[in-house]
Task: structure prediction
Amino acid sequence: MRLAPVAVCGELIGGSLAAMLALTECHANKHGAVKTLVLGKPVVDWTAMYPIASSVAEDLTPAEDEGPTIGHSTKATRLKPRKKKPPPTDSWLTHASSPLLSASTLLQARDTLFAKPEHYHDPFASPLLFFRSASSDIPPPESPFPNHFPNSVPSAPSLSPAAVTTFLKPRRAYMRYPPLGSGLVLPRTRVDVGRESVLRDQGVELAEAMGRSWALYGGQGAGRGEGGRAVRGDGNGEGVVNVEIREVEGEGLWGEEELVGVGRWVAETLGSPGVRESSE
Result:
């Protein structure tokens, strides 16, 4: 019996499971392989989550620079301050207190799901790590950072913002995925994210990493293929769209209408010539 190509979809932690399955079971010449993936606000990097203490958040906010003064009189002339570039947006920090899904809720979930930090430093738990190194190192036993990072000021580790940033944001090494000779071909993918979601950055980064794989290696582990592309928007463009990012206002959680749209997109994608031919 010939098995049909498979589509998987998932949201939040379910998105983590769906991404892990799709990225490891997307065999090029195997019946029943995953050919289509749809993710909604997926949790794809548990290692990128860190405590949001108010003191740290305040210190990370750039202060107004009035510029140095010239002379020593009481009417000193001030130099015109240089125009600063706006700091990069960080959805984890910006939307940490979201009433629908907060940073502390996800940290508590991580504490419940993983007994040790090394467990969520595994790409099968954090699928973004198939494409790059972890966002944080595994803390040593004597580290002030436990598995569950507290989210309140009184219990937060007493470290400077620079120390927190250094600990949680080491230089990342990017890697080829799928690996050469693996016989894997990345599935056609759609990632839905909410602009005000604490998980927005993770979803966007995964989509961009998959798009980069398509651009450099044809999305496969068998030499260089025919590129393809990653786009933002509704996917209505010319050519093959292998990875699509859809951003919506608010949290972007799936409701009945969104699930119907996901079903239609899956049906159209599985019925496209490229997917049919690759499964025959």
